[in-house]
Design brief:
The protein has about 400 residues and is an alpha+beta fold. The chain contains 10 helices and 19 strands. It comes from Actinoplanes subglobosus.
Length: about 400
């Protein structure tokens, strides 16, 4: 990059102002950390300052041979929000899982000279790049890089006051939980039935209980604790495709959908509308937790797009039907419409539309959602009475959604 340091400093100041204005930076400490670290040093050659300091732009730094992202520098608003969630203070001992360099530099600023920062990644190329760039930015002696599978724990390391995970995790393995000191904070993008939320958990000796929740997406964890979705591809007679993706709970017989795209789509309006620009990010979370048969759906516009041209990857498989959501224009607003294919398309569409109405009635206006993580062996009688439960390999995740009532 050829821009002057003064330009970089000005961009940092403008970025912090935007982050504060939108509520992604809530503390002076995080603001000072973002001001101190030049983001552009940690981005690939050729990335402009416009991209480096865009508030909502992630930059991929490594892909595999198939083009799948393995490592990235997260968008500035995500990094700032997670740092606020972690509540770091001078002298803290902090572990970062997923090494890019930039976030570790921010952490080093927050914990100061008396703190400890350890950054770990399973990919030696990623840690090598991070080590080089941290050195160039002046943080080479303030961050220790390790190449290891952090999902299995880190032998010989003392517990940490905070663990910040910058990769999507499907479960919280015992090795990870074992790295938390008493009263430590774990900030982790947790994948729940295909939908990710970045949750700050407090470790108090029993279950992990959430203290804050943010919306964010990350590349997935590699290593022994990686979790792969099951994906089924449906083809239309014209050769267009739809891919149906399950995090868990795959129907016993997906072959009933083999010829689903041969027929015309069936639709069911929900009657639920949103204004242009209105956020409805909680809808995907609601569907992931409370819609039996929930799946993620993607495909070619020729089979996916509704009248308004917009479709969303949230759907359901019900018997021999698969449905997903479109957003169709109506009376100056936009209505959620379930669009479905297959012999049981009408059933699938009606099921999805009804769950959208349930969200609108019981969940749309309730912001104080609480998560818990209960290790394997927990007596289920100890779980909150109003919570829904999602089984994982090493425990269960619960969600308590005010207004919904008992699960």
């Amino acid at each position: 990059m050829t821009e002057s340091p003064e330009t970089s400093e000005a961009r940092r100041a403008a970025l912090v102002a935007t982050l504060r204005e939108n509520g992604w930076v809530r503390t002076d400490e995080v603001a000072r950390a973002v001001l101190a670290v030049p983001r552009e040093i940690f981005l690939p050659e050729g990335v402009s300052l416009d991209d480096a300091y865009a508030v909502d732009r992630a930059v991929i730094t490594r892909r595999d041979e198939n083009g799948v992202a393995l490592s990235s520098v997260s968008a500035a608003y995500i990094q700032a929000a997670m740092l606020d969630q972690a509540c770091l203070k001078p002298g803290d001992r902090v572990l970062e899982i997923g090494s890019g360099g930039l976030n570790a530099a921010y952490v080093a600023e927050l914990v100061g000279s008396g703190g400890t920062v350890v950054s770990v990644d399973i990919d030696a190329e990623v840690t090598g790049r991070a080590q080089r760039l941290l050195g160039e930015a002046g943080y080479g002696d303030r961050v220790r890089l390790l190449t290891a599978d952090a999902g299995q724990g880190l032998a010989g390391e003392d517990p940490f006051d905070a663990v910040i995970v910058t990769v999507g995790m499907w479960d919280l393995a015992p090795g990870l939980r074992g790295m938390l000191a008493p009263d430590a904070t774990l900030v982790v993008p947790l994948i729940m039935n295909g939908v990710t939320r970045t949750i700050a958990f407090r470790h108090s000796g029993g279950p992990l209980m959430s203290t804050s929740v943010e919306v964010a997406g990350f590349v997935g964890l590699q290593g022994a604790e990686a979790h792969a979705d099951e994906v089924f591809t449906l083809l239309s007679p014209a050769g267009h495709s739809m891919r149906v993706r399950f995090d868990s709970g795959v129907p016993v017989d997906m072959s009933v959908l083999d010829d689903a795209l041969a027929g015309e789509p069936v639709t069911a309006g929900s009657g639920v509308t949103v204004a242009s620009g209105e956020s409805f990010e909680r809808l995907s979370l609601w569907l992931a937790w409370f819609l039996p048969g929930f799946c993620r759906v993607e495909g070619d516009d020729e089979v996916m797009a509704g009248p308004g041209g917009r479709w969303f990857p949230f759907g359901v498989v019900r018997d021999a039907g698969v449905a997903y959501l479109t957003l169709d224009p109506t009376d100056g607003r936009h209505e959620f419409v379930a669009r479905a294919y297959g012999r049981d398309a009408a059933t699938a569409a009606a099921t999805l539309a009804e769950q959208v109405r349930a969200w609108d009635r019981d969940g749309r206006g309730n912001a104080d959602v609480t998560f818990g993580y209960w290790p394997e062996g927990t007596d289920r009688a100890a779980l909150p009475a109003d919570a829904a439960v999602l089984d994982k390999s090493h425990g269960v995740v619960t969600i308590s959604w005010p207004g919904r009532g008992a699960a």
